[in-house]
Every structure is written in C-alpha cells, then in structure tokens.
Specification:
Glutathione S-transferase Yfyf (Class Pi), Chain A, domain 2; homodimer; globular; alpha+beta
Chain lengths: 230, 230
C-alpha cells in the first residue's frame, strides 16, 4: 500500500496525484499542513516539504521529482505506450527540464505566490504571517503568469505535447501548476488559444477528476474550474 | 565533444564538473555570467540558469539534476562499481533526495547568499544590485550553515557515505556546495569531526583538483581550501 502526504493546493502534490492516477497506483492520501512543522512529519522528511510517499514499510520517498522517478522506475515499465517518461536520454532530459520549470520556476513565480496569499494565509495564524493577501505580491504573480502562458503556447504550437510527440510528466507538471491557479480564477485563458486547447485535453483525463473535486470552504472555485469546455 | 556552460562559484556547476571528472568525460568548459542574460545563452536555456551541457549537435541539457541523470544514463552503465547512482529504486530515491537537499536547500540557505554577497556583488554593476556585502544576509547564512553541518555529521556518522554504503551523486553535491563556502573560509570545520573527515575523503579525489585550482583575483582562497589535511 502506498501512502502520500500532500496538500490539495500544492503544484508538486497535484503532480504526484496525477502520476498515481495515470499509472493506476492505489493510494491513501493524507493531508499535511507543512507550516505546522509536525514532529512526526519532520522525522520523515527533515526538509519539511511536500509531497512525501511511503510504500509499505519502505523509507520515505521525499519530493515530487524523486517520487516521479521512483514511480517510473517501479511501475513505468508496465505502462507500454502510456509510460510518461520517454526512452531516449535526450527526450528524457527535455521532460525533466520542463518538470523542473513548472514545479520550480512557474510555481515559484506564479502559483506559490497566489496560493500562499489567497489560500494559505486564511489558515495560517495572523501572528505567524497569515491575514489578508498582499496586493503587490498578487500583482507580480499576475504579471509573471503571462510570460509562462506564452511559453506554454510556444511549446504547444511547435509540438504535439509539451515535451514532444507523447503525453509525458512535463504535461502533468504544467497542468498541476495551472490547475491551482485556475481554481482561483487567475489564468487569463483568452491570451493563448493553443494553451487552452492543450489544457482542455489534459483536464479531460480521468486522472484529473479528483483534482477537479478539490474544494476550500471559504473560496469556491472559479466558474471554469470544473468545466471541460471552459 | 561535450561543452558545459558554467560559473566557477556555483554549487550546481561544481557538482556537474565533479561528475564529469568521476565519469572521465572530456569537457570543454565555458564560463557564463547568468546575470548578464546573454541572448544566445537564453536561447539555449530560457530559464537563464546554469549549468547547461551540449553534446555534439544535440539539444541543450539544462540544469544540474537533469545533467546528472543524462550523464548517468549515457555513461553510468560503463562505470561498474564506480557508478554514482545505485541500482535499487529506494536507494536511488535517497541519492536524489540528498542531491536536491544540497543543490536546493543548502545552496539556497547558505551557499547562494555567501557567494552572491562576497563574490558576485564584486562583478555586478552597483546600479544592478552590486556593491558591498549585506551583513544581515551574511549573518543568516552563517547561522544556517551550522544546522546543515550537523545534518551532514549525522549522515556521515550513521552511514559510510552520505546516501549509503558507496560514494554517490549525493556526496558530490554536498562537497560541491561546501567547497564554494570553504573557499570563502566560511565553514566552521571544528564543529563536526566526522563531517570534516568525510569532506577530506571527497576533496582528495582526482575529480576535485580542478575545483581546488579555482581562483578569483580579488579574493584569495582561505588557507585550508587547497590543504588536504585541513
């Protein structure tokens, strides 16, 4: 049995949830709030970050790209055409570069800001940095997302999928990031039609359904979040 | 022929130089100053980050962990016992977790601050953020390094090498990070004897020699930098 410690509005965690869905891995998901720095969680992952995967009595597998490689190494070979990591070293490098881009750069410049300001700050006590969103931070994130959408647009216009001819981990990483922002109604979809069409394809996959069912009580999702013809 | 774009005082770049040394890969190294945002460099890696590797007419391989996997996939199988990535999925996950720790967390909390304040700011024009080091930043980095040394000490006290019984990418990542800080005389070696002994072993390897020869004109290395019995 696999257990994954995650938070519903984390790009890296959504990425791992999508991989588990695509690879048909049954998982027990446990919500963790990393800002609480729970002792037993820090013993599993001293970095204090999500996601963390534990398989049976095995050691904790920490971090989204580490989990991606682990699931691909232990399950990918059974997936045939639906394997999310290509076979050739150069194409694998391109998949990994894009996964790093979306989990690192895009998350750091866009998703992390918006989710922290609009969602996490509702839950974090005021004395520890919670409270109203900082409008300067929101403005920066809204400026940054346009550059990223252009880049995704360029990729989807020149390739079938983000990293090449087949759906790969890169598409799941990008869609995981966008989905967090989309919940908050912060994706200017009309900027780029090819990006929108590509996202529609990923969003329609069965692996995406649990993510479209995520809800926060205080913030209902944007009107287009669940709509497959947004 | 392999070309690697790098900067001598970057953890991620030193990590890749060490891998190339260990795997016996002949490389032409090209120094790149990423803060100049050179157009041809951005065309290779739109993220604008180092290191970038190009093999013959192949596509750019961008980022330290992407290069690590690429070199291991294309060369590692010839290395036998000296392969830097273990065979078992769980141990591979531990190597990757620690590589992420040292290139990400340790670099972000310690090395990046010290190198930026003490080295890069000498080269960056004053109007673009160059100038004297910020003493508050130096103080933070000096506090942070003690926690990291303790963690390395715990790892080296409980295992032969950082990730297990054999030298792996994890040791090279940690040593790459420490070497940048050691040049600046900022490693409190006396805090932890097992860490010091482990670093002495890695530092004595032939792959480390080019790194010990790195010099910045304005800043001579600390007295212990080259000394193998520091």
């Amino acid at each position: 049995m696999i257990k994954v410690f995650h938070h519903p509005f984390s790009t890296s965690c959504r990425f791992v949830r999508l991989i588990c869905g695509e690879y048909g891995v049954p998982v027990e998901f446990v919500v963790e709030k990393p800002w609480e720095r729970r002792r037993d969680f820090l013993l599993m992952n001293p970095a204090g970050t999500l996601p963390v995967l534990v398989e049976n009595d095995g050691p904790p597998i920490c971090g989204a790209t580490v989990i991606m490689e682990y699931l691909d190494e232990t399950r990918g070979y059974t997936m045939g055409d639906r394997r999310l990591m290509p076979g050739h070293a150069e194409t694998r490098a391109e998949v990994r570069r894009l996964v790093d881009w979306f989990l690192g750069k895009f998350d750091g410049e866009v998703v992390g800001y918006l989710v922290h300001e609009k969602i996490f700050k509702l839950e974090i006590p005021r004395g520890q940095g919670g409270g109203e969103p900082d409008s300067a931070v929101l403005r920066a994130a809204r400026a940054n997302i346009r550059h990223h959408l252009k880049y995704i647009g360029w990729l989807t216009a020149t390739r079938d999928w983000l990293a090449g001819q087949r759906l790969s981990f890169a598409d799941l990483a990008a869609a995981a990031a966008l989905s967090c922002v989309d919940y908050l109604g912060e994706v200017p979809w009309d900027d780029d039609e090819t990006t929108k069409a590509w996202y529609g394809l990923v969003k329609s996959r069965p692996s995406f359904r649990p993510i479209l069912a995520d809800r926060i009580l205080a913030i209902p999702p944007a009107a287009t979040y669940v709509d497959l013809d947004f």
